[in-house]
Amino acid sequence: MSTSNLSSYEGLPAPSGKGFRIAVVVSEWNTAVTESMFSACIATLKEHEVPDNQVIVTRVPGSYELTSAAQMLLESNELDAVICLGCIIKGETPHDEHIASAVANGITRVSIDYSTPVIFGVLTTLNQEQAEARSGGKKGNKGVESAITALKMAALRKQLI
Question: Model-level pTM?
């Protein structure tokens, strides 16, 4: 299995976030992982010139609630993108599969319904070690990836609308 950094975007230009208004929804479940992703996401948005006062942060209890929070944010704000950050770790039962499927489908549906990028920044791992590796460890940080995706999709939306 590769140990490469999955979050590397060197050589792939990301647009400036000047003028963008972006919401970040963060799950409180698996807090050590989601807070690491959140910090990296915010740092990446700042690095790409998204003004602090144009970032709306909302926290929800778990990954399952990401979808409804994204929808509420889009209903009550003019946004260029919503980033959903969460972490679902496999347990003893298959509940993780049901949660992950519901969240992925829900995020896709909200994105399509509102014609606004809603980014799936949700780790779905087999164990804590994998989650840590993908939230600031040797595999990168899903928060960085999610921020770059949001910037690119928000720029595409502005170009097309």
Answer: 0.93
22-160 — its CATH code? Answer: 3.40.50.960
Count of H-run helices and E-run strands, the chain: 5, 6
Q: Exactly one of 4, 19, 95, 129 is catalytic; name it.
A: 95
Let me know: does 103 contact 68? Beta carbons within 8 Å: no
Q: Which two tokens stand for residue 156?
A: 């595409």
Token code pair at residue 26: 């963060």
**pLDDT the model gives residue 1:** 39
Instruction: Decide: 135 and 36 in contact? Cβ < 8 Å.
Output: yes
Can you give the residue ranges of every domain in the chain?
22-160
> Which residue's structure tokens are 């942060």?
57
Q: Which pLDDT tens digit goes with each residue over 68-98?
A: 999 999 999 999 999 999 999 998 888 999 9
Whether 48 is catalytic: no
